[in-house]
Every structure is written in structure tokens, then in C-alpha cells.
Amino acid sequence: MKTDETSATSTAVAARLRLVLVRLVRAMRRHGSIALTQSQLSALATLEELGPLRISSLAALESVGPSVATRVVASLEDEGYLLRSDDPIDKRASVVELSPKGRDVLANLWIERTIGLSSRIDRLTKAERDSLEAVLPILEKLARDG
User: How many CB atoms lie within 10 A of CB 130?
Assistant: First the structure.
């Protein structure tokens, strides 16, 4: 059973963790030669993870309206990052997927951001790196917990 003290501690930890994550994400965004909006990057990452999707499904997964998803898809398609085709089940709908160029852009961006974060980790002491590695399973659990 949660006590008031446990709840207060959880809230304080959550606030610190949120701030740290926001700062780390901002730092990682500075690494990368590709200029993508967060909406574009998120859509590409979702398509990388899940494969071809209807635009309506992508909109739902990204928690945006259909018109926003359509604009994001159109901009990514204009850059050559996405391929659009007719939905084989419903010819009125479109399915989008990453193009080879889109896959390359994401792979390069992930590499650039990983290198940027890695350089920060390299500046930690061995004990700090060990502690960070030890807490990763907990952070991964938090990320998976829906």
C-alpha cells in the first residue's frame, strides 16, 4: 500500500527524472545533420518500428489529427523519405512506408545522436557509467509500461 511519504517520494523522483529526460533529449536533438521536425521524426520512427501503415493509423499512433498526419506525410514524401501506395484492402486509402532514403536518414540520425550521447557518457567516471548501466533495465521497464 502506498503511503503519503512513498507518494511524495515518487512525485519528487518523477519530477527530477522528467527534467533530466527533457534535457537529455534536447542535447541529443542538437546532434544530427538532418533537419526534421519532431512530428516528422516521430512519424519516421513509428514507420521504422511498425512498417507500412495507413495514414489514419499513423495519425492515431502519433496522437494527431488526420489533416496533421497528411501534412507530415506529404512533407516527408516530398523529401523522398516515404513511399505512398494504395491500400490493397481499400483503394480509397493510402499506405505509407519508409523509402530507402528514409531508412538511411534515420539510421544516420540514430548514429549521430548515439555518438553525441556516448561522448557525454564517456566523461562520466567508471562508477557512474556502471551505475547508469545498472539502472537501464529499470528505465526500459518504465518506457515499456503503458
Answer: 11
What's the CATH architecture for 31-144?
Orthogonal Bundle (1.10)
Q: Residues 6 or more apart from 6 whose CB is under 8 A from it?
A: none
In degrees rounded to 5, what are phi and psi of residue 113?
-70, -35
- Please calculate the CA angle 26-27-31 and round it to the nearest 5 degrees: 110
**What are the tens digits of pLDDT across the range 58-100?**
999 999 999 999 999 999 999 999 999 998 888 888 899 999 9
What cell numbers appear for 57 in the block? 493509423
Q: What is the DSSP letter of 93?
A: S
Q: Report whether 93 contacts 101 (CB < 8 A).
A: no
